[in-house]
Amino acid sequence: MKTNARLQADVQNAIKWEPLLHAAEIGVTAKDGVVSLTGIVDSYVKKMEAENAAKKVIGVKALVENIEVRFPSSWSKMDGEVAQEVLSALKADYSVPNEKVGVTVEKGWVTLDGELAWHYQKEAAKTAVHYLAGVTGVSNNIKIRSETQNAIEQKDVEEAIGRNWSIKDSDIKVAVSGTTVTLSGIANSWYQKEEAARIAWNTPGIWHVNNELSVEYLYPTID
User: Fold this and answer.
1) Ordered per-residue pLDDT tens for the chain, 223 residues
2) Does the 74-144 domain belong in CATH 3.30.1340.30?
């Protein structure tokens, strides 16, 4: 069984292992599988790298992320400059129909909206913004409106999840209502939870995925 102190140390080491985060000052606390991250970094991509590194650690059930992005004064940019760079980044990404994505920027915080046909396009739009200097955060408000009229079959989603070697043994239940898929039950890791949702999002005709999976490891944390 993994203690809270061990989980804290594992997350700290996972964050330090990321090349971009060697110099970042990020505080980590852990209690009953809930990990909290605090601190200040000088780019949004470092904030995301710390979050992603923590999610991959065995024993993490939930993440509270309070990392602040704060730039040196010499790096500051006007919101208009940031907006232009965001638009250019979206245009350069072939997987994003950039003409369907709206962009607003306030104090470096980027908000994306609009409607796209696939979830992977929504994720690609957000990823395109991660590495831009001057970005302090991203709100991805893009909605999915599938262009296909095919009815979603519950068994198709179940079989797609079951084909994935990394999550086929998890206790995942699938429910379909119209254009919405709801996942419930237990995943054996955070990775499995996100992978199940990713597979569900690939279903033709889907507009929404409610990921209600809880994460339960075989070896829970203890005090």
Assistant:
1) 689 999 999 999 999 998 888 756 899 999 999 999 999 998 899 999 999 999 999 999 999 999 999 888 767 789 999 999 999 999 999 999 989 999 999 999 999 999 999 999 999 999 999 889 899 999 999 999 988 877 888 999 999 998 888 886 668 999 999 999 999 999 888 889 999 999 999 988 899 999 999 988 766 556 6
2) yes
Would the CATH topology of 2-70 be identical to that of 74-144?
A: yes
**Under CATH, which architecture does the 154-216 domain have?**
2-Layer Sandwich (3.30)
59 φ/ψ angles, rounded to the nearest 5 degrees: 110, -15
Q: Minimal CA–CA distance to 135: which of 187, 79, 95?
A: 79
- CA-closest candidate to residue 167, choices 136, 139, 198: 198
E-strand stretches of 70-121: 101-106, 109-116
- Write down the architecture of domain 2-70 according to CATH: 2-Layer Sandwich (3.30)
Q: Quote the Cα angle for 47-53-59, to 5°.
A: 130
**Which tokens go with 4?**
């809270």
Q: Are 95 and 124 in contact (CB under 8 A)?
A: yes
